[in-house]
Amino acid sequence: MSKIFEVSNLKKSFGGLTVTDNVSIGLDKGDRVALIGPNGAGKTTFVNLVTGHLRPDSGGVFLDDENITSVNAISRVRKGLVRSFQITRLFRDMTPEEHIALALLQVEGKARYIFGNYRRMSHIMDEIYEILSTLGLQTLARIKVANLAYGQQRLLEIALALALRPKVLLLDEPAAGVPQSETGRIEDALARLPEDLSVLMIEHDMDLVFRFASRVIVLAAGAVIFDGSPKDVVNNARVRIAYLGSYAQ
Ligand SMILES: Nc1ncnc2c1ncn2[C@@H]1O[C@H](COP(=O)(O)OP(=O)(O)OP(=O)(O)O)[C@@H](O)[C@H]1O
């Protein structure tokens, strides 16, 4: 079976510095993969190449067998390659229900119905509450974002990404900045993501990585130095040297 998502021999240099060094990875439907690496390993650059915010020097990005290397960032989202939103894009005076409604209506080309009318559209209401329940936000549906805890706002970012009906979801550090007391909620929510959705998560919190991912890819100095099971990653000598340090002991 072909991969739902694949990057092949991706290369990117800034001046003389190679930041993405011949990276090839693939995801099957339903895969739960974590991308890790030390600071400066090239994770952000890799994500920008994948989302279409940066052009590679060479190599390709493929979604569901289509070569999308030259496709712009917005069209990649429409095709199903979606990155979780950033909190800075949330509207503080709007509720989670309104955020998801707006995203769903936009996907359907019906954004003009946002001003209250969407509540009469049963398929939209059903999908809003299905998505909010997945993220454990259903009881907060009508509370303004300004009154949500930080971790709840981060969950809303993921909910918004789901509203764009992704095939492949890129999660950029979903637990970053979230207090320890709230990370359990993030973990529970990630465990409830749709089974057939493929997820690539970039994350520094190794506990979350090991609980979430069935596969771990390690990037160091722009190159993939490991692609395998979480069990094997801690025993891999190159990874220990490049990244894990004391965690592996
Ligand atoms: N636009 C740019 N021009 C020049 N160098 C860049 C540019 N973007 C990134 N770099 C360099 O590329 C390297 C990788 O950066 P990148 O931000 O992709 O790493 P990262 O793994 O995301 O790091 P971190 O986890 O610290 O955010 C760094 O040395 C960085 O200074």
TrEMBL record:
A molecular function GO annotation = ATP hydrolysis activity
* GO CC, alphabetical: plasma membrane
SUPFAM superfamilies linked to this entry: P-loop containing nucleoside triphosphate hydrolases (SSF52540)
Keyword Transport appears in the UniProt entry? yes
Kindly give the InterPro entries that the UniProt entry links to this protein.
Answer: AAA+_ATPase, ABC_AA/LPS_Transport, ABC_transporter-like_ATP-bd, ABC_transporter-like_CS, BCA_ABC_TP_C, P-loop_NTPase
UniProtKB keywords: ATP-binding, Nucleotide-binding, Transport
Q: Where does the record place the ABC transporter domain?
A: 5-246
Q: Which family does it belong to?
A: Belongs to the ABC transporter superfamily.
Task: Name the chain's protein.
Answer: Branched-chain amino acid transport system ATP-binding protein
